[in-house]
Amino acid sequence: MSRELTWKKAIDKVLSASPEPLHYKEIAERIRSEGLRKNLGATPAATVNTQISSSIKKLGDASPYVRTGRGIFGLTKKVTSRVERDHALSSKEDAEEEQYAVISSFGMFWRREAIEWSSKPKILGMQDTGADSVNFAGQLGIYLLYDGREVIYVGRATERSLGRRLYDHTLDRMAARWDRFSWFGLLPVSEKGTLGTMPESFDSQKLIPALEAILIEALEPRQNRKRGDDLAAVEYIQAENPDFKNRIVAQVMKDKGII
């Protein structure tokens, strides 16, 4: 049985095989799809970004990696053209792209029916197939409720968490009116899948671009050609709670007299 590669060796293998620099999210996806690591943690893309960015920050020109664009990296020995090197980002601000600007994570059009609602629901998401799931019930931020594709309500989760706010909407005047929801969270996510604490403050220069990006991502206006490019957050896909799914299957079998 072959041993699992370290993150660094997996990153090096992917970049060595690529004819051009790659975005850290693409590097993480190739590590997963090629089976270079089975243990991806909860934040594989962020882990790849941190591994490479930390090397560049600590080693400078001696790092085996070079940044050629926002979130895009290559191996120094392969990035040899003058044009690529001239475009490599070297300022302190760009030397390490922040994992989280204002919004740390978000989920789009998650299904209400996939969650077992209670005062402490499990709202599970994962960064990629094979990654560990994260329970976002304790996340803080803003959310949208949909009836089909139409936004019917916008709310905030501050004193009460996302899970509690959404649970309330299964009981209040909105109860019969929504079937999906999107959310944008402020609390950072660790590699182990736990939620961190709220930052004491946010850079004012990042607030306006982040707000614009949220609106573009959530509302998808026709005249905006791009998605919310200033949304530095990682999108999570909804993950089913296996316990809830098993209970539903058992109930259906019981109703049909199978068990």
Tell me the distance between the termini: 41 Å
**Structural domains: how many:** 2
Number of strands: 11
The poorly predicted ranges are: 82-87, 89-99
What is the H-and-E element order?
HEHHEEHHEEEEEHEHEEH
| Sheet of most strands | 5 strands, mixed
Rg, alpha carbons: 21 Å
Mean pLDDT: 84
Percentage of residues in helical conformation: 25-40%
What form results from the Cα inertia axes?
globular
DSSP helix count? 8
Structural class: alpha+beta
Give the DSSP E fraction (strand runs of 2 or more residues).
Answer: 15-25%
Please state how the strands of the largest beta sheet are arranged side by side. 8-7-9-4-10
Structural commentary:
Helices cover 32% and strands 19% of the residues. It has helices at residues 7-17, 24-33, 44-59, 82-86, 92-95, 162-168, 204-219, 242-255, and strands at 22-23, 65-69, 72-75, 105-111, 124-126, 134-135, 141-147, 150-157, 180-185, 234-235, 237-238. The protein folds into two domains: 7-95, Orthogonal Bundle (Arc Repressor Mutant, subunit A), CATH 1.10.10; 105-245, no CATH class. The strands form three sheets. The chain has a five-stranded mixed beta sheet with strand order 8-7-9-4-10, with helices on both faces. A three-stranded antiparallel beta sheet has the order 1-3-2. Strands 6-5-11 form a three-stranded antiparallel beta sheet, with no helix packed on it. It has 259 residues and is α+β, with helices and mostly antiparallel strands. Residues 82-87 and 89-99 have low confidence and may be disordered. Helix 2 packs across helix 3. It has eight helices and eleven strands.
